[in-house]
Design brief:
Layout (H helix, E strand, L loop, with lengths): L1 H23 L9 H8 L10 E7 L6 E8 L7 E9 L4 E3 L9 E5 L4 E5 L5 E6 L11 E7 L3 E10 L3
Antiparallel strand pairs: 1-2, 1-9, 2-3, 3-4, 3-5, 5-6, 6-7, 7-8, 8-9
């Protein structure tokens, strides 16, 4: 009888513990490296007056941005996208166009089913899948980075601003 009483007590405590455990468990969020947090917190903010295109490409597991490119869209009658900055995973950022220097002009080709941007030296190509150069909005589109330096990375781009 005594053994039966202990067994019932242990069973009761186990059931009570299982019922309360989810309430006591802290929420667990995925962790990222400090460098990824720095890069994500400094993502490009939309510029209302000037249309821009921001693209970010991820490491092989698709969670941490490895490199980001920000472009000013061309004025009417032009086909080049002026590079505003390039940001790396470690938070380093190269700004272009300061001190009166011209921004690197990336060539845009929208003739294929996926539009492409080519760096001035031809070393980097960005494929824009489903990109509409005349349509801004909060939606991200799929993109691909092709280069020897960064290898082939998947990513996304978003066009912001009006004009």
């Amino acid at each position: 009888m005594r053994t039966r009483g202990w067994a019932l007590a242990v069973a009761g405590l186990t059931v009570a513990g299982l019922a309360v455990a989810p309430l006591l468990r802290p929420s667990v969020e995925p962790t990222q490296s400090p460098n990824a947090d720095a890069l994500a917190s400094r993502r490009a903010a939309p510029v209302a007056a000037q249309p821009t295109l921001y693209c970010e490409f991820y490491n092989f597991v698709g969670r941490t941005p490895k490199v980001g490119f920000h472009f000013a869209l061309p004025a009417a009658g032009r086909a080049d996208y002026a590079q505003i900055f390039q940001r790396e995973i470690d938070g380093a950022q190269t700004d272009f166009g300061g001190d009166g220097q011209p921004r690197p002009a990336w060539a845009f080709d929208g003739s294929d089913s996926s539009a492409t941007l080519h760096s001035p030296d031809g070393a980097i190509q960005i494929n824009l899948y489903g990109y509409d150069a005349d349509k801004a909005g909060p939606a991200w589109i799929e993109a691909g980075l092709r280069s020897i330096q960064y290898l082939n990375l998947d990513g996304r781009c978003r066009r912001s601003g009006t004009a």
